[in-house]
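Researcher: Next sequence.
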Amino acid sequence: MEPDLTTKSHFKAKRAIILAAGAGRRLGLFTEAHPKPLLKIHGRSILENCLDQLAVNGITHTVIIVGHMRDQIVERIGDRYEGMRIDYVISENYATTNNVYSLWCAREYLDRTILLLEADLFFDGELIVAVQDCPAPDVVAVARHRHGMDGTVVRLDTAGAITALIEGARQGADFDYSDTFKTVNIYRFSQNFLAREFVPALDRTIAAGQTGGYYELLLKETLTREQTKLMAVDCSAIRWYEIDDANDRRQAEYLFLAPKEKLRFVSSQYGSYWRYSIIDHSYLYNMYFPPPDMWLRLGRDLQLIAKQYPVGQAAAADLLSELIDAPPSQLVVANGASELIRIVCSELRKKIIVPVPSFNEYENATLPENLVRYPLLQPAFKLDVDDFAAQAKSSGCSLAIVVSPNNPSGRLVPRADLMRLCEELRPVGIVLLLDESFVDFCEDPEHQSLEPLMPRHPNLVILKSMSKAYGIGGLRLGYLASKNAEFLGEVRARLPIWNINGLAEGFLRLLPRYHSEFKNSRRTVYFDTQEFYRLLTAIPGVEAEAPQGNFVLVRLQEKWKSNEIAQRFFLEHNILVKHCVGKSMPDGARYLRISTRTPDENRKFAMLLANMLK
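Model: Next structure:
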């Protein structure tokens, strides 16, 4: 009686072949002492995880092709594993050949339907289920191509059959990945396909002396003959990671963390969130700058920039002076504003007054005995500059810090008030450090910033994080600007001669060319933020003051906890957002600070928040 080819069970394999012969040299010290398949992810080796998933999904016989330090694998696994029979095939020439030769060594086991897997893959068992359940004879597990993936990709027709296979060597710098899928390196091949096409192709390849190739090229030949359809199974929603080097191991460790552990891990990283496909509504930066042409120019010189020393501190100040109307002697360029905050608040040992809530680094960098907190009254968080000046004088401070627009409130201190504050503090020798990192995102930056008025106020020091305004958080650029030569001299003396990298230097050199593009970008951010503010405040139970930065501080009803809402955004939607628990403010647990992204992302965030608060 002919089998029913529409049933899933007819195609399921009972035997698996695992390619585990390679040396895995990119894992360095580990593979000098151990075979790569025994590398552990959360305490479980890659190979044992693979065998676990096979055993619980109906595989009764597994053949492991071994080579590099094979005795360790045989000793660890043995000839039975969770009820499965284990056989070994030795690829003696593993060091000078590739996987096409290793698979040829196991050709006697290619006489029935098999699962073929590579032993550098850590994955969830759903992958085996998806491949085994596919109602087609010959199946390839694939996933949507994402940034950072390497290796073979495929294209599919509308029915899900593979129409093209493109190996990594043929994916140039301009290769279009938009319609491609990455092969996951789990396959199911039917007995018929193996006997009719695959094994003969293996034999021909080895007979021709082509032992350094890959079996994927045999699959590519299959597509040209059009005798066998290779059907793709989309496994994009299933966890898996191909591990070739130490960075892959770290990525796999993250991917297979429990959800709440992921949040703790990400929170400890302080950046590089793009590596984990996170949508970042937490950090604050310009989404529209630098423009593509600027990145292209930087990229052209990348090799020279990376190999050569950058300019020193004085030359960096000279480059910055072309951007702002101040001589180099009145500028200090730093490796991000955080470097300057640490020096000013910690190393100068001055007594400091700072309105709170504010950017946490000012409080964190100041010794407790030198810190005076000036509470801002909620919900408006308006700074009373006259009372603030009086408090600064009475508490014996030598440095007053104001962030305008403030982080996290987004509240702007009017220029006239800031000028009056400078004059109030000047007679008693108090320096005003004005953090204008977000002033470019207010409605009228040119008439709000105090940079043009700096010559009138010798006790004024302006600090700016260029990372935020110019969208270059990874380049780490910030500066101080002031007529106060003594203050700047104290800071300069604490900086190394090379404190910015060559890429940041290259950015400073190019920046004056793109002044108009920058002005357009910050205007776009302003309008996006105002629209985001309107979307958020239309949600019942959400309140906010109109923002003047590139973020919105929202106040939730008392029954909602901002840290719980932030946790839900991460666990349910892979979105990172800043809660204000731990801020120096009475009701921090009711506040979320949400950074502006693209209009589509902002609309999605507002919709998700509305659903959560229903």
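Model: Residues 161 and 231 are 4 Å apart (CA to CA). Residues 279-286+517-613 form a domain with the Aspartate Aminotransferase, domain 1 fold (CATH 3.90.1150.10).
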